[in-house]
Amino acid sequence: MIKKVNLLLEGNYVLPDSSLEYGQIRVVDGMIKEIGKDLGTADVVFPEHFKIYPGFIDIHVHAREYALPPDHSDEDVKQWEQVLEKEDYISVCAAAVNGGVVAFADMPNNPFPPDSPVYYSTKARVAAESCSIDHVIYALLTPKSEPFGDIPYKGYTHDISRKGIRAIFRRFASESYMPLLVWHCENANIISKHPDRPAEAEERDVEMILDLSAKHKIPVHIAHVSSAKSLESITSAKLSGVAVTCETTPTYLYFSRQNINSFKNRKIIRMKPPLRTEYDRQRMLDGLVTGDIDCLATDHAPHTLKDKRAGAFGIPLLDHYTNFVGWLMQNGVPRKRILETCCEFPGEFIGGYTGGRFGKIKVGYAGSFTVVEKRSVEEVMHEPLKLETKCGWSPFEGVVLGDKYVLCAAETIVRGMRMKMYQESI
Among candidates 17, 1, 21, 56, which has minimal Cα distance to 366? Predict the structure, then answer.
């Protein structure tokens, strides 16, 4: 349950134009009511070296928890319990807060997926009862999917035939509210012949989705772009008027096939799409700087070490969101682009489905903030990793995310609630 409280905070905050201002922010019932200099005695005054950002938002998270159907079997219960050993809504919110994330969007690939109004509303109710931060739930696209609400829909092209994907676009094109279709793009025929999932698998299906978006005038979002060629296709489509946006993840910005052997957990840093070349990695980083990439998302996939050793795809990343923002800033991504990719774009996404306004320190927006602190590399490298994800491991073990400093989430404030203090009190 999300609490909406009153708070008057004071410190250096980041304005929408990326400039810094020292002053006070008053939050009333979870929303920013006033911004100024002398609003009263602050409830909390942050040291001058702290910076108050609009809360970071992650629109690609696998929270794992779902709702069992009424007619579930004992085997269904056993599977559900095994899933909750990896993550649930309480632990995913704790990991988000630890990483400075104030809101997230949860992916739908569950054993009982939210692919119909009944299953969707049931899962959304479970999330609402357990989540302490703002969230949105994706519906799963299947070959028989019909639109059932103004909600985000997620599809996996390798799980649906070409004919089925074309039929989805035709059915959704008839809706007046223009539903957003989010796609994991990998070609089933290519990966069946090439289990290493080459870049061509992603590139071919990105082009297919772009063509269908252009034909049916339906907005699409391409998840976790990893290939330079995919990104070129997306940027070209944007220039031609296609309603497409895209994201990439820390995975494809930091790791590559050329550098992976230097990392402690290299044998289990395995995901889909897989790691690409150093050229692709650099193109993803350049895309964040230039604006070709719209959003930073984690694709947080909290598999246990046992799962990973058995070959599971995906890695946990939520706990490191703010750390990674610091790494990006030290690798050429300016503060303005951090605001756009980590706050404003995902804030508009979350707000579009919740009716709120997120992603800016501005009157009328949610009183949710990520308060960051620069810490020395020497200090951080001798500290154990503090993880809140249930799966309990990190791809960044033995790694310091920064050469000059490490950016840490000193406070995560959600709707006026100082979340780290709140979680410690319950």
Answer: 56
